[in-house]
């Protein structure tokens, strides 16, 4: 009987995040097979987010031909995704697979503070990129004088400052948990890392996400309507003249439409990744936090994976990015004057 009691006690201890520690969270470990699959999937995402976005940043900042206002916005967006891969995903990997937080309460709050700014920074970068594309498609010849490097710099500064100030002030002040003291007290245990957000701030956070999203959807809808009109005009002109129109204006318009299409795919990927998470967060707050932990973790990782997707989109749609990667990976960037190489030729 004593032996049976001892075995049961050991089984209970093994299911705690911290053995022999009072107030430890209960651990729900996966069996070895699913555990290995989960680690593989999430670590692959983190590695892709780190190295993929690092290649985007190096390409744009190193090669002089890529120094344009739009590309500086893309490089800053890649920086946000890179930081998700470095500061958020590795720690979330352990939390998701082991169902325990082993990095201390202070870093738990800091980790939660990091998630917000990088998400909001991404959405505002994408919003400004959509406005940039709108100007480029509607008036491609005047565009270079309207969306300059200084304008791009102001967009980058706003995206980062607003996102960081909003997220850190909300979580740092504890305003997110106001009115949820009993729930926080009930959920608090050693080895846990759950940040509660009350209804008011969930609603504000959703609006901070939704407003730029609405702007993007509206702008890209207009872009594709205009692109369709431009294509029809060129086709009509070609039919009338009996030859292919290849004026400078037509070539510029075609290039800008292609860039808008590529960045439209990046926006769509962002929405598919983050919208389910935000919809669940707002639903959960108003229905008493009913989402099962595993569902929440799945939604979080779908959102995180967006940071790994953008470099794949650029690699698929941009020949210049594939050429830049090849030069970086093969070490040809170490040659003299390699920064001035023509990435848009053949």
Explain what you see:
There is one protein chain. This protein is mostly helical and 346 residues long. The chain has helices at 2-14, 32-62, 69-98, 105-138, 143-146, 149-173, 181-187, 199-241, 248-286, 293-317, 319-329. Helix content is 76%, strand content 0%. Helix 2 crosses helix 11 (319-329). It has a single domain, classed as Rhodopsin 7-helix transmembrane proteins (Rhopdopsin 7-helix transmembrane proteins), CATH 1.20.1070.
CATH superfamily heading: Rhodopsin 7-helix transmembrane proteins
Q: What portion of the residues fall into strands of 2 or more residues?
A: under 5%
The helix/strand series, from N terminus to C terminus, equals HHHHHHHHHHH
Structural classification: mainly alpha
What are the segments in which pLDDT stays under 50 over at least 5 consecutive residues?
Answer: 7-13
Count of helical stretches: 11
Terminal Cα separation, in Å?
A: 79 Å
CATH architecture descriptor text: Up-down Bundle
Rg, alpha carbons: 24 Å
The strand count comes to 0
Taken together, the total number of domains comes to 1
Percent helix among the residues? over 70%
Approximate shape:
globular
Q: Tell me the major beta sheet.
A: none
CATH class, anyone? Mainly Alpha
The third-level CATH topology is: Rhopdopsin 7-helix transmembrane proteins
GO molecular function, one term: trace-amine receptor activity
InterPro entries: GPCR_Rhodpsn, GPCR_Rhodpsn_7TM, TAAR, TAAR_fam
Subcellular location: Cell membrane
Domain G-protein coupled receptors family 1 profile: 52-314
